Amino acid sequence: MPDSKIQTEEMVIRSSKGISALHLRELWEFRELFFFLVWRDIKIRYKQTVLGVAWAVIRPVFAMAAFTFVFNKLAGFTVNEVPYLVFVLCGVTIWNFFSESISFATNSLIKESNLITKVYFPRIIIPSATVLASFADFIVAFILFLIVMLIFGIAPTAGFLFFPAFVLIAILAALGIGFWFSALSARYRDIAYALPFAIQVLFWVTPVGYSLAHVPEKWRVYFWLNPMTGVLEGMRWSLLGYGELNGTAVLGSFFIALVLFITGMGNFTRMERKMADFI
Amino acid sequence: MPAVITAHNVGKQYIITRRHLHNSLRDVIAEKFSRLTGRSSSANDDVLIWALDDVSFDVQQGEVLGVIGRNGAGKSTLLKIISRITEPTSGEIRFRGRVASLLEVGTGFSGELTGRENVYLNGAILGMKKNEIDRKFDEIVAFAEVEQFVDTPVKRYSSGMYMRLAFAVAAHLETEILIVDEVLAVGDSQFQEKCLRRMENISKQEGRTVLFVSHNMGTITKLCTHALYLQQGKVRALGETNSVVSQYLHSEVQEGAEKILTHQHPNILHFKEIFFNKIAVKDHQGLYSTEIDVRYPSSIVIDYTVSKPVRNIEISVRFFSYDGRPVFTCHQSDLQPDLYLQRQQGTFRAVLTLPPNILIPGEYYISLEAHEPAERVLDKHEHVIKFRVNETGSKLSRYQPHQYMHGVIMAEFPWTNERTSS
Known about the structure:
The structure holds 2 protein chains of 2 kinds.
Chain A: E1 10-14, H1 24-29, H2 31-45, H3 55-74, H4 84-111, H5 113-118, H6 125-151, H7 163-187, H8 190-204, H9 217-224, H10 227-240, H11 247-272, H12 275-278
Helix pairs in contact in A: 2-6, 3-4, 4-6, 4-7, 4-8, 4-10, 7-10, 7-11, 10-11
Chain B: E1 5-16, H1 25-36, E2 47-59, E3 64-68, H2 75-82, E4 90-96, E5 99-102, H3 115-125, H4 130-144, H5 159-171, E6 177-181, H6 189-204, E7 209-213, H7 217-223, E8 226-231, E9 234-240, H8 241-252, E10 258-260, E11 274-282, E12 291-293, E13 298-306, E14 310-311, E15 314-321, E16 326-331, H9 337-341, E17 342-343, E18 346-354, E19 362-372, E20 376-390
Parallel strand pairs in B: 3-7, 3-8, 5-6, 6-7, 12-20
Antiparallel strand pairs in B: 1-2, 1-4, 8-9, 10-11, 11-13, 13-18, 14-17, 15-16, 15-19, 19-20
């Protein structure tokens, strides 16, 4: 016989209206499923590939080589404080995390539509899990970056302590955009088609292969609207001691990432209710 | 005692637009634009459909409620609302206890992962805690009979093993309320029997509440204490299983010896490799009739279309007794194994001949199905036609009107009779 204590709690299912608050308690209840989904994503991401996890290293290495060739050798961008290779690799590790997160997150709901139409759980854990799974790749790439730093004999400065803050801004921004795009693409498939193009455009207007110092003064303010600008400039400042840190601009990046995160979550919980009907 | 589940005036509305759903931004923008310019035509293109309309019922603890009705009657929508997959448009449902829904076996199974990994993942998806799965792991694997293969990726499993493992996880859920949608229609008959016993156990011994959707009236009458009969989104009958089931059979099964088979979503026919057009019952004189003479042969005529060449598709006809229990099933390949292997494109007529003196006088229903054995169902019509076997002087006529007590099959097997002492 079931426990009598379960008799006390009553659930009510009815149509909800307006923007509902995120049910934090419920999210906590489903934390195990969240970690199972992360674990599964990591586990099957490189299944049936010959090189396996090596891909997490190969991609940043090739990106580093290509970007150094294009930006440094062809376009003639230079940085004085550190070798260009290391400068680019620092940006590539966090940029790859960001772009992969949003592209996996955007398609995550469509990929899991079978789950969505068959089982109940807070749907927001699906895009969140893909972002966390991409973070595993980031850790691998980041270790590679630290090794490269060692090879080039670059000693970390006191700013090193601040780098988790910039990673956090990147995670917030990736989650925020992931929430927006995944919910919208569950409804409108256009988003999934537009995404690779959008990421490409975003790449060129984000200082990954170059630095904000290469950007004419009058345009910099627009660059700061991109939360990834603060992340990249901040990462290079904290890890490589490169450039000056513009505190206001970093706070601005954080603020924009936070707005993306909160509005993305709000929109997601609003669209979540009918997701099973239209996906 | 208060009810475990109380549904109060539940309604669910779907909007279907003539140009299908707005699945791309272009449609939405175009529509917004045409509304702005006042050339709006889309407003009247919208069709509102109440998939569920004013549905109310109570379920008590330990009750097994069978939800029955035709395809499109709203059964799945109801289960989806109770499972919280989608929200109702109106009304509310209150319940006490944890709910687990099994709308499909093996939801979230990943072919790349091993059996062990999938048990954990699927358990988590169905709402089990990790330590709960740890505790039951051996039991689940034993139930599924896949002990040697727990560390093999499930993509290497046979479909039978896959289904068994998937059902085994679900069968070990410990929630107070279990919602099951016809998942028993899979696996071999032995495993199905095992699943049914497990379901009976869940409700009878463990006192848990089960909501069960099935098209199989035999399973419904066997498992369920109560039944809810939905028709076009409304409650048509609610109460004790046998009376609800007989109401369903009487009102849904079309009278008439010949029946044109319509399809709920005609567009789907483009994708179906095989589908049925018509079914009819003929008496021994070759006339369409639902009144069959027990002493003569009769036949079932099936018209079907194969839209592109297919392999391994079986056509089967299942006979049900008046109370919805399956009696036997005839497969088209029973005596022609080759037919089943390869089907050519075209429209065909299949005729199944029933010998005389096989079914005991009474009422019978037929279900028709095209399927790939243990894989998928291509077309299916449940309880599509009804006929009566009339007593015209069979060996049982001397027991009239109590022939039904003799079972459903007329058995005539050899006896011996020898004097053993004098």
